[in-house]
Amino acid sequence: MTQTHTDDYRRADGRALRLTYAEPDGVVRGGLVVLHEADGVTDGVRFLVGSLADEGWLAVAPHMSGDGGLSGGDILGATDITLAWLVDRGVRADLLGVVGFDLGGAAALVVAASRKLGAAVSVGGQGHDGELPPLVEIAGKLTSPWLGIYGDAGDEDGAEVERLREVAASAKVATNVVRYPGANHRFDADPDAAAEAWQRTLNWFDAHLR
Question: Where does the record place the Dienelactone hydrolase domain (predicted)?
Answer without folding.
Answer: 82-208
